[in-house]
Amino acid sequence: MAAGGGIDPIHQFHIAPIVELKPFGIDLSFTNTSLWMVIVLAVVSAIMVYGSSQRSVVPGRLQSLAEMAYEFVAATMTGVMGKDGLKFFPFVFSLFMFVLASNLLGLLPGSFTVTSQIIVTAALAVLVISIVVIYGIVKHGTHFFGLFVPSGVPGWLLPFMVLIEAVSFLSRPVSLSLRLFGNMLAGHIALKVFGGFVVVLLGSGAVFNYAIAPLPLLLAVALTALEVLVAVLQAYVFAILTCVYLNDALHPGH
Amino acid sequence: MSEPDPNASDSELRARLGSLKSAIKRAEESEKPGASPVGEDKALAGAMSSGFRAATDLAGGIIAGALIGYLGDRWLGTSPFLLIAFLVIGAIAGFRSVYRLGSRPTSGSKGGPKAN
């Protein structure tokens, strides 16, 4: 709650330690972010383990959910990288399910959205780019750096283009983490603001305000639907961009 | 099926061959790298993901450029020249990412510019 008696839309992103842990002066406290990451992992594991344990020919609900998730990610990966990209399947599938589950669980009232913390999305993006760079160099050696040399550029322009390509490559983790973080943050703030309008209007005591209080409520309902779409879409975008970047490591210098 | 008329079975065979050929073609298309995933929902998702990418690639380029310039300045003590230079380079890199996003081949053609 803010000082003015209104509703603080930022408060939902506040990180509070649950168990204080400070060995050797390093803050390793178990916070609400950590708790929700554990919850996300538990939900994903439960769905996948239980969903794949039955193995019936006609799948039940959970089994078909698990199979749909598997087939969706596999189809996306072969679409971007071809068959040999499937060696990264465990990595991309884990990323996709983690982002999807934390986005969707974050929409539950009173929950905490892990992906609305820039440090979480930045860590995921840095992980993706590290794998791209390390795999690319191990697999292709210096040939990997052909990625920075665009074809069909006149010689005098080449140093400049290489510089731009390098900056463009370095901007990938920034935009990858920023996109997920920004969408989650903005959506949750907007939801909170419109929800707060309803509360403020109903609490004001004026008859006219009672009459218009349903309007922000309607918008909040519509925004919730939009947020479900954005939550799924951002997980998809994160996964497909991971595939695009991994494709550069698999087949550099095309 | 077991019609004695040679013309009828011939056309039937041809039809089956044609449908088989198209099925093989479809399977090959879907296994090719860079092939777009089929389905209308996927087309919508693809379009929206392109939109999100274009918006944040632009911002990401500028932010990355600013970050590189700022850190370089702090390292070499050349404030503010590297920041200015890399802001411009970052903006160009951002525009180039968006340009590449827009100019990539939509189908699974291998020849065109690199899908990125």
From TrEMBL, chain B:
Keyword annotations of the record: Hydrogen ion transport, Ion transport, Membrane, Transmembrane, Transmembrane helix, Transport
Pfam annotation, one family: ATPase_gene1
Keyword Thylakoid assigned: no
Statement: the UniProt record of this protein carries the keyword Metal-binding: no
GO aspect biological process, one term: proton transmembrane transport
Cellular component GO terms held in the UniProt record: proton-transporting ATP synthase complex
Transmembrane segments: 78-99
Entries under InterPro entries matching the protein: Atp1_alphaprobac (IPR016989), ATPase_put (IPR032820)
Organism superkingdom: Bacteria
Family according to the record: Belongs to the bacterial AtpI family.
Role of this protein: A possible function for this protein is to guide the assembly of the membrane sector of the ATPase enzyme complex.
Name of the protein this chain belongs to: ATP synthase protein I
Native organism: Bosea sp. NBC_00436
